[in-house]
């Protein structure tokens, strides 16, 4: 596995052989980003929040009541599932 982190703090993980994306933890390990293409089945999860909505297209409508954050959102404990 290889990781890359930009100066902004955003990072990613990928296979060093085939470059397939892999789950990535933020620097504080409070949030894990899992590329949706890695999932084989529909996971039994619900939206905890919508992040980076400050840069979404104006025609994109979010149709649920989950909190929305212009940027990343508030930090969460490591064991909380969103």
What's the quick description here?
The protein is an all-beta fold. The protein has strands spanning 2-5, 11-14, 21-22, 24-25, 32-33.
Could you explain how this protein is built, in words?
- The chain has 82 residues and is mainly beta.
- It has 2 domains: 2-39, no CATH class; 45-82, no CATH class.
- The chain is 0% helix and 17% strand.
- It has strands at residues 2-5, 11-14, 21-22, 24-25, 32-33.
- The strands form 2 sheets. A 3-stranded antiparallel sheet has the order 1-2-3, with no helix packed on it. Strands 4-5 form a two-stranded antiparallel sheet.
- The radius of gyration is 14 Å and the shape is globular.
- The model has no long low-confidence stretch (mean pLDDT 80).
Question: What descriptors fit this protein?
Answer:
single chain; 82 residues; mainly beta; globular
Q: For the record, give the distance between the C-alpha atoms at the N and C termini, rounded to a whole number.
A: 25 Å
Overall number of domains: 2
Tally of alpha and pi helices = 0
Strand content: 15-25%
Strand order of the largest sheet: 1-2-3
User: How many whole angstroms does the radius of gyration measure?
Assistant: 14 Å
> How would you state the average pLDDT, rounded?
80
Low-confidence stretches: none
The biggest sheet, with number of strands, parallel, antiparallel or mixed sense and barrel status, is:
3 strands, antiparallel
Helix content: under 10%
The dominant shape is globular
State the secondary-structure class. mainly beta
Number of strands: 5
